[in-house]
Write a structure and sequence with these properties.
Elements: H1 4-18, H2 25-37, H3 39-52, H4 60-68, H5 86-89
Helix pairs in contact: 1-3, 2-3
């Protein structure tokens, strides 16, 4: 559970990431620490990274998918069934989704 002060600090840092403003290494480590433990913070970080790259769709299905926060935040090449290993392709799934 995040305290209100922690949530506000995280959102302030994430806002700067999304606007491509200066963020210190310590702030990035701070955000990543919470993102590793909290799915909500991880989602906020993915949205900030997408905004940073200018991937905020205006309407349609792309906007819906963006609002649902699906998919990786980093661009990846398309899956090639004959050449790629499916396990590697889905290897960066969140911890709650992976099989144990």
């Amino acid at each position: 559970m995040l305290t209100p002060a922690t949530r506000l600090r995280l959102q302030e840092i994430l806002g700067r990431i999304g606007r491509e403003e200066e963020v210190t290494l310590q702030e990035r480590i701070y955000v990543q620490k919470f993102a590793d433990r909290d799915a909500s913070v991880a989602g906020w970080l993915r949205r900030a990274r997408r905004r940073q790259r200018g991937e905020v769709p205006s309407d349609g299905i792309d906007r819906l998918l963006s609002a649902m926060n699906l998919g990786p935040c980093e661009p990846r090449p398309p899956y090639r069934p004959g050449e790629d290993d499916i396990e590697d392709w889905f290897g960066d799934a969140p911890d709650w989704l992976r099989r144990s």
